[in-house]
Amino acid sequence: xxxxxxxxxxxxxxxxxxxxxxxxxxxxxxxxxxxxxxxxxxxxxxxxxxxxxxxxxxxxxxxxxxxxxxxxxxxxxxx
Length: 79
Known about the structure:
Blueprint: E1 2-8, E2 17-23, E3 34-40, E4 47-50, H1 52-60, E5 64-65, H2 67-76
């Protein structure tokens, strides 16, 4: 199954994430199928950019977002 989840790329004590589509069996920072956006919680207000077209395509094809990504997609207005 494909999941839409966060991939951490930030340094220690400075989190920065990419929103990616990945196989559910791969590790958190492992191989991904497609990068869908970015999320930076350290900015005020948070930096959130999502490729809406690609995300909707993955959702229509059966990809399941994680709980956190689901909340972020609602904030971005994709879902």
